[in-house]
Task: structure prediction
Amino acid sequence: MNTHDLTLTHLIALVTRRILMYLGRFQQQFSTLVAKPARRGSAATTHAAPPPTRTTVPDPIEFAFNAVVGTMEALRGGVRHLYLRNVLSAALFDQLRRQCAFNARRRGDAAGIIAPAAHISLRTSSMCTITEAIREVTLVVQDNNRVRACAVRLERTHSSWRVTAMNISR
Result:
């Protein structure tokens, strides 16, 4: 297999993973809206209960890992950083945006050349509960041949988490 085939394979795996992630979120959010139509004259048409609302918050460790992977891929130039806008706080997103622009100028790929994606895997994780709405997650991830330590501070919003601080070792 040559380098081009590996790059294409990594890119296909990255796109497939993102599509499956978004489809899973879409299905969770809108599964209550799609219901089978009730028969005419049945009790279900006269006394239908409202669909249940989503009250469960995603797992903080999984959420932090996805945020770290997205940030590392954006810094490398593999994906656009814009999809992290709803995950990161405004200050953190602005810092990521500036760093991505700097990295692109340094690499000379201002035209938007996509870098090959790396396989990032989780080695260990730990979570500390500060309050019910604030969690601090530490992760050890493997990025190809490098092992990196990551620290993420999460603050709870209505039905999800928002990353307010992130530190990824070099």
About this structure: The radius of gyration is 20 Å.
